[in-house]
Amino acid sequence: MPDVKHFDPDTVLDSVVRLFWRQGVGSTGVQDIVSATGLNRSSLYSTFGGKQELYVAALRHYVERRSEPVLRKLTDGTSGLAIVTEFFRKLIETRCSGEHARWGCLISNAHANGDGDDPDVREILSLHHDRLRAAMFSALERAEAAGQLRPEVSVASAADMLALLAYGVNLRSRAGADPGTLEKSVTAAIGLLAA
């Protein structure tokens, strides 16, 4: 008779994402995961594998549930620089206030903590970066078509810069940076692009 799961794996991943996001994978033990999820070790291992496999699943879950919807707004929006400005405004607001204030971003934290030694983690981080950069590129192409960019601005280079700026906001907010200072930096960077 097949083993029936008496828990929702997505709900478990939501809990694990919060744990890894707040504490980091290196500071999180299996007992922390057991306590946060309410599952026993054998249920965790049989469903997700070991701690590293669970971390990879948590990263994928975070990207799917948190990053992708935000990046779709950048890609699908009709405005150019306005949608980029709104992206950073919401990013700063989310990172500096509310439930997840000062947690940074799980993806940025993984970059900063050197978690990319694992090939599965490295693949997720690279794919996320490519999607972030592509979303910025898409918004900047619309800005260029609307005459919102300076003529000398390279859309590709500007997309790279804005992707790196997003990582910087995530990391600086985790370190306690003042939201006003972050907003000024973003305004200055976008100002360098604007016609």
Structure in a nutshell:
With 195 residues, the chain is an all-alpha fold. 73% of the residues lie in helices and 0% in strands.
Protein architecture, described:
- This protein is mainly alpha-helical and 195 residues long.
- The protein has one domain (56-193): Tetracycline Repressor, domain 2 (Orthogonal Bundle).
- The protein is 73% helix and 0% strand.
- The chain contains nine helices and no strands.
- It has helices spanning 9-23, 30-37, 41-48, 51-76, 81-96, 106-112, 119-145, 155-174, 179-193.
- Helix 4 (51-76) runs parallel beside helix 7 and helix 5 packs parallel to helix 8 (155-174).
- The longest helix has 27 residues, at 119-145.
- It is elongated and about 60 Å long.
Which blocks of ≥5 consecutive residues have pLDDT under 50? none
Give the name of the CATH superfamily. Tetracycline Repressor, domain 2
What's the overall average pLDDT, rounded? Answer: 94
What count of structural domains? 1
CATH architecture field: Orthogonal Bundle
Shape: elongated
Which CATH class is shown?
Mainly Alpha
Determine the number of helices (DSSP H or I, runs of at least 4 residues): 9
Most strands sheet: none
CATH topology: Tetracycline Repressor, domain 2
Q: Could you say which structural class the secondary elements and strand pairing correspond to?
A: mainly alpha
Number of separate strands: 0
Summarize the amount of helix as a percent range: over 70%
